[in-house]
């Protein structure tokens, strides 16, 4: 018990060496990889190996990668956006990427959400879909029909990054410098052909 708890009595987070030594679930393994170095995206994105074999099925790995991405967008990205996106009333009164405007996919009533609302609604919807036990049964392989949700999630995540990139470039640069989350997303989309990366700018 003692090794798993800090002096404050909270459960301690596993470090990477421990994660590699234990038969952990994909989610914990990925979280440990990200904590070890979020900037090392080429170590984070590929399916890890154990004894020379993939440690997880590719679908399982993509699934946990997308859940982790949506989670990691909260801080610093969405937190920073809360101040910046509302301040730009003209560009961000609706969801824009450049000149293109998008209707919120969550409401079927044609209601137009402001960009910040759109982003929150879209990410909440993705998180809910990825956590759905019907689409992703906890004790069974991921069914083929659920794989299309990966592409749909990437389309929305790409739109969030592109809005920030196009309309809040300073915020984008600042958040990316500290988190490398966009680089992780771009590599994930490219490696598993989840989203056409020619639509995604390469960050210097
Ligand atoms: Zn905005
Ligand atoms: Zn909405």
Automatic annotation (TrEMBL):
In which residues is Zn(2+) bound? 85, 92, 163, 168
Superkingdom = Eukaryota
Asked if the record carries the keyword Metal-binding, the reply is: yes
- The yes or no answer to whether the keyword Metal-binding is present is yes
Q: Which Pfam families match?
A: Mob1_phocein
> What keywords were assigned to this record?
Metal-binding, Zinc
Q: Which InterPro entries match?
A: MOB_kinase_act_fam, MOB_kinase_act_sf
Sorted alphabetically, which SMART domains does this protein's record hold?
A: Mob1_phocein
Entries under Gene3D superfamilies matching the protein? MOB kinase activator
Q: In its UniProt entry, what is this protein called?
A: Mob1/phocein
Per the UniProt entry, what species is this protein from, by scientific name? Malassezia brasiliensis
């Amino acid at each position: 018990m003692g090794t798993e708890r800090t002096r404050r009595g909270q459960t301690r987070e596993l470090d990477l060496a421990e994660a590699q030594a234990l038969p952990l679930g994909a989610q914990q393994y990925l979280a440990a990889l990200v904590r070890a170095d979020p900037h090392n995206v080429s170590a984070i994105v590929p399916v890890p190996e154990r004894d020379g074999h993939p440690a997880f099925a590719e679908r399982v790995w993509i699934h946990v990668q997308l859940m982790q991405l949506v989670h990691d967008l909260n801080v610093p990205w969405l937190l920073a956006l809360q101040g910046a996106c509302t301040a730009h009333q003209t560009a961000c009164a609706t969801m824009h990427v450049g000149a293109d405007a998008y209707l919120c996919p969550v409401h079927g009533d044609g209601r137009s959400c402001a960009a910040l609302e759109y982003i929150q609604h879209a990410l909440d919807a993705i998180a809910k879909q990825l956590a759905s036990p019907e689409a992703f049964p906890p004790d069974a392989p991921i069914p083929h029909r659920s794989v299309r949700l990966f592409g749909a999630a990437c389309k929305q995540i790409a739109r969030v990054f592109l809005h920030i990139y196009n309309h809040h470039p300073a915020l984008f640069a600042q958040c990316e410098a500290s988190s490398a989350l966009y680089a992780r997303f771009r590599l994930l989309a490219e490696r598993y052909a989840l989203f056409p990366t020619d639509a995604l700018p390469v960050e210097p």
